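Troubleshooting log. The previous structure file for this entry was overwritten by mistake, so regenerating from the original sequence record. Sequence copied from the archived sheet and checked twice against the printout by T.R.
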Amino acid sequence: MNISVTALHRFCTDALLNAGVDPADAKTTADVLVTTDTWGTFTHGTKALRAYIRRVRCNGLKKCGTPRIVKEGPAFALVDGDSSIAMVSSVFAMRTAIDKARTAGIAFSGLRNNCHYGAAGYYATMAIPENMIGFSMANDIPSVNAPGAKGSVMGSNPFAFAAPAGSEFPVMLDMATSTVAGGKVFAAATLGKPIPPGWLLDAEANPTRDATLFSHAASLTALGGYKGFCIAFMIEVLSAVLTGSAISREVLSWTFSEPSLPTGHGAAFMAINIESFLPIANFKNRMDHLIAEIHSAPKTGAETLFAPGEIEFRHREKALRDGIDLPDDVVMSLRALAEESGLKFPPQ
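Regenerated output below.
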């Protein structure tokens, strides 16, 4: 289905308002999810809205939660998300890091009492219009194997980095620390499609291509083996151990656990004020030079070598102009949400 960005945003906002969410919070949540779809990252966009609203209706997420700073200094803050919708508390925490970086140069913001926050890249890219470099990371329930383990050991703990450029697209890295995000496996299972080899290990730690086994009887492989496991461990420390959030198996699933309970996710954000190091025009020129070197590198059959995030920003340009081509599994989820909410999808 092709749908305009405006229409999709309106539907998401209406569905959240229908569930009793504060209007400003509904807009923030819709902004995050729809932007994610414009990038083509459909596993973490509006497809997830139905599960978030289910938790709102059951009080596992507060309709009108109030994220607040509970500890702070010139270059850091600890934020309590108050079990708000995670898009709301995560935007609050990232803005806090950005505000502090204006004077401190670099600032870190830790977030506890959060939930699944969607695409890590959204929060990192909030730094770009402020002429800053942004970082974002979070923990999740164990769903990823570690080398030598039998079953899941660590979450797919995502990490994102974003930086502005001049005439080129900004740079954005948004990655899970598993070989692939779990959402892609769920999408394949929903659509009855096979998955590539190397994504999953079954209950005996043997490779499998059966997407329906995830996550009750299979675990994701770690990105790069022990390297991905170690990066996920670092993210667990920064986003959960340091912030006082739920750790590893203490975290509840945002899709499968009792929806009346908070999930306890943690997250962490950082902003670097570029002007604290060198003039922004100089930085952007240097970024353009780096990206141009990537584009001009010798190729082995590829037409273009893309910088991190370039494909996503090209997708967004097209989506804003021509609408978003939603995959079937996303349409199925949004139609089910519309039926549950007494709304029409696509909106009239």
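The two ends are 14 Å apart (CA to CA). Archived copy saved in two places this time.
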